[in-house]
Design goal:
The chain is mostly beta strands and 71 residues long. 11% of the residues lie in helices and 41% in strands.
């Protein structure tokens, strides 16, 4: 299990993540479970709702600051 974060500049406050790599997510915990297995440097496709509009966003996975990861 790797603790990771998505690039802070890509996802903005108020964005709602609807899907990760095409898989629907209903909760923040579910989103984290879908992203966490990805290695830092991998790209994931997010479906976001931003200001009432749905859009696709490719983001690069990064190690979560202060997180512990497996090497």
């Amino acid at each position: 299990w790797r603790r990771v974060a998505i690039a802070a500049a890509a996802v903005r406050p108020g964005d709602v993540v609807l899907a990760v790599n095409g898989d629907k997510v209903d909760t923040a915990r579910e989103m984290i479970r879908r992203i966490a297995p990805q290695s830092p440097g991998n790209t994931v496709q997010l479906t976001l709702r931003r200001q009432g509009r749905d859009s696709q966003l490719a983001v690069t996975v990064a190690r979560r600051p202060g997180g512990r990861g497996e090497e």
